[in-house]
């Protein structure tokens, strides 16, 4: 059920502490940790503590939590010293867009030039 921890969800297991991660920020509603397969010098994931399969379902059910995720993405960029040089926040939705963990999450990418379109 959406909003409830899922026993087979990697990110739910990170939230619960069952699986270790390099956590860099935590709030009551979010957790931010380094991606294990970084695509840029800075690559941090910001996830809601609540389980929702993607950003759209999170927005529909918990719009304030989605706002928390986006606010934390900005704070990660500031903490990582990429806010002034530019960074990207990406929500992949669905397997065709590259989503591999079906728990809403934002990728915060920076520390190098990011081309457009993102391909």
What's this, in brief?
With 119 residues, this protein is α+β, with helices and mostly antiparallel strands. The protein has helices spanning 10-16, 55-61, 63-79, and strands at 23-26, 30-34, 42-48, 87-90, 106-110. The protein is globular and about 40 Å long.
Order of helices and strands: HEEEHHEE
Number-wise, the strands total: 5
- Count the DSSP helices: 3
Name the assembly state. Answer: single chain
Fraction of residues in β-strands: 15-25%
Poorly predicted sequence stretches spanning 5 or more consecutive residues: none
Measured as a percent range, the helix fraction is 25-40%
Overall spatial form? globular
Structural commentary:
This protein has helices at 10-16, 55-61, 63-79, and strands at residues 23-26, 30-34, 42-48, 87-90, 106-110. The protein has 119 residues and is an alpha+beta fold. Strands 1-2-3-5-4 form a 5-stranded antiparallel beta sheet, with helices on one face. A hairpin with a 7-residue loop joins strand 2 and strand 3 (42-48). The radius of gyration is 14 Å and the shape is globular.
């Amino acid at each position: 059920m959406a909003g409830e921890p899922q026993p087979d969800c990697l990110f739910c297991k990170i939230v619960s502490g069952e699986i270790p991660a390099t956590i860099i920020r935590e709030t009551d509603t979010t957790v931010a940790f380094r991606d294990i397969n970084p695509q840029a010098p800075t690559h941090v994931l910001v996830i809601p503590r609540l389980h929702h399969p993607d950003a759209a379902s999170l927005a529909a059910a918990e719009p304030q939590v989605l706002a928390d995720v986006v606010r934390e993405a900005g704070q990660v960029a500031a903490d990582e010293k990429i806010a002034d040089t530019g960074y990207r926040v990406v929500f992949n939705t669905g397997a065709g867009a590259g989503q591999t963990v079906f728990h809403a999450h934002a990728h915060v990418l920076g520390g190098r030039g990011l081309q457009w379109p993102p391909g």
